[in-house]
Amino acid sequence: NGCVAGLFLAGGPKAGTASLYHDLQAHPDICMSDPKETWYFFDQQKYTRGLNWYASRFFDECGEGKIGEATPGYMAHPQVPSRIFESIGSARFIFLLRDPVERAFPQFHYDIQRGVRDPDRSFSEVIRDPEEEEANPSRNHVGLLELGHYADHLARFEGQFGRENLLPILFRDYTEERSTTL
């Protein structure tokens, strides 16, 4: 269909991206992807499918409005900024940022629910395990605490796209002052 995102909601997991995705989707001048999370620029298998596959995640009737997607894993993946730049060129980003500890704990439980984390290991064990925290792009893994190194992640995007194309939003501001923040 030729539509690809130029707006990325790339904040951390468990930081309100689903709610903000729906708020953006409700705006008449914004067309969001279906599904919410394409994982295209994160997942090597999806990335090798090419831009035509990626474009099929968007509606044909996007019109002249902004086209966006919301994949929270993009922020921490080291290759995502360069992949987006090489594939699309210019883009804008919204990063929802939640207190790193407050974000990591629900992520830990969510991972257990999805069956990707051993339920017999405690949160304390996991965050103290150096192998757990080691980023491993080949298996699409970023440690629970590594996800909260926001300054490092945002610096990669700033280096590729410039600060003027990044909008960090604090989770607290979004949840407590939603209409003002929107």
Provide structural commentary:
The chain is α/β, with parallel strands linked by helices and 182 residues long. 40% of the residues lie in helices and 12% in strands. It is built from ten helices and five strands; from the N terminus they run E-H-E-H-H-E-H-E-H-H-H-H-E-H-H. A five-stranded parallel sheet has the order 2-3-1-4-5, sandwiched between helices. The protein is globular, with a radius of gyration of 16 Å.
Topology:
Blueprint: E1 7-9, H1 17-25, E2 30-32, H2 44-47, H3 51-55, E3 66-70, H4 80-87, E4 92-97, H5 100-114, H6 123-128, H7 130-133, H8 150-161, E5 166-170, H9 171-176, H10 178-181
Parallel strand pairs: 1-3, 1-4, 2-3, 4-5
Q: Biggest sheet, strands in spatial order?
A: 2-3-1-4-5
Strand tally is: 5
Number of helices: 10
- By secondary-structure content and strand pairing, the structural class works out as alpha/beta
Kindly provide the radius of gyration, computed on alpha-carbon positions and rounded to a whole number of angstroms: 16 Å
How would the global form be characterised?
globular
SSE order, one letter for each helix or strand: EHEHHEHEHHHHEHH
Described by strand count, sense and barrel closure, the largest sheet is: 5 strands, parallel
